[in-house]
């Protein structure tokens, strides 16, 4: 079953027939052809398999996870694929990442959502752990969903990442988080994450070494 679903997920990807002046990959999600422009000079400008897993879940579980008119923030949005799919499924999306990635992110989001979505998504800078209250004040920012794909890897900002999850997450916010396990860093972060949040694995793909989690603040998931 794992290999069958993985084949279906990876089958959503297609490539240009001809070499173009810009490097791009194509994807079929939410009834649309999505073209993602990539850059090969940084991690945040490439589509990783965890993003495809999360997009597949959003599309195939639209009743369980109805995004219509919901407020969604994606942290570490990278090329923007997850934010684009969430927008096409009816959400009001804020796609965030580091300042140096915003140009490519804005380009992809605009090219793939303009006049196609109920709510036009916005792109905003979010450097984990920095100026959170200034840029995303707790009193006025409420998100129904926080989405993240492959944000935990070999980098020194795991404390800031946990702080960002904590700041953005209200009592009724649902976190959907797809992660590829590569190094011990991932396991240690999951342990620390669970001090603040209840964590439930909703998909596991051993052949990709990727898990998809749902999380809420402690004791809120059962309620």
Describe the overall structure:
- The chain is α/β, with parallel strands linked by helices and 223 residues long.
- The protein has one domain: 3-Layer(aba) Sandwich (Rossmann fold).
- Helices cover 30% and strands 26% of the residues.
- The chain contains seven helices and ten strands.
- The protein has helices at residues 2-10, 49-60, 81-88, 102-113, 132-135, 158-168, 184-193; strands at 13-14, 24-29, 32-37, 71-75, 92-97, 122-125, 145-149, 174-180, 197-205, 210-217.
- The strands form two sheets. Strands 6-5-4-7-8-10-9 form a seven-stranded mixed sheet.
- A hairpin with a 2-residue loop joins β2 (24-29) and β3 (32-37).
- α3 (81-88) packs parallel to α4.
- The radius of gyration is 16 Å and the shape is globular.
- The relative contact order is 0.14.
- This is MT21E methyltransferase.
- One of its GO terms (molecular function) is methyltransferase activity.
- Keywords: Methyltransferase, S-adenosyl-L-methionine, Transferase.
């Amino acid at each position: 079953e794992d290999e069958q679903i993985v084949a279906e997920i990876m089958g959503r990807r297609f490539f240009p027939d001809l070499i173009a002046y810009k490097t791009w990959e194509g994807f079929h999600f939410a009834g649309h052809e999505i073209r993602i422009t990539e850059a090969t000079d940084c991690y945040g400008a490439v589509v990783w398999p965890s993003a495809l897993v999360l997009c597949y879940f959003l599309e195939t579980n639209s009743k369980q996870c109805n995004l219509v008119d919901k407020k969604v923030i994606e942290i570490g949005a990278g090329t923007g694929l997850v934010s684009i799919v969430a927008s096409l499924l009816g959400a009001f999306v804020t796609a965030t990442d580091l300042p140096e990635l915003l140009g490519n992110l804005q380009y992809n989001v605009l090219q793939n959502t303009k006049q196609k979505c109920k709510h036009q998504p916005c792109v905003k800078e979010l450097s984990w752990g920095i100026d959170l209250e200034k840029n995303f004040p707790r009193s006025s920012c409420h998100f129904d969903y926080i989405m993240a794909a492959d944000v935990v890897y070999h980098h020194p900002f795991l404390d800031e990442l946990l702080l960002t999850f904590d700041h953005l997450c209200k009592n009724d916010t649902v976190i959907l988080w797809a992660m590829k396990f590569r190094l011990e860093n991932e396991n240690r972060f999951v342990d620390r994450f669970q001090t603040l949040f209840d964590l439930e694995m909703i998909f596991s793909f051993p052949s990709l070494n990727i898990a998809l989690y749902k999380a809420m603040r402690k004791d809120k998931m059962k309620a």
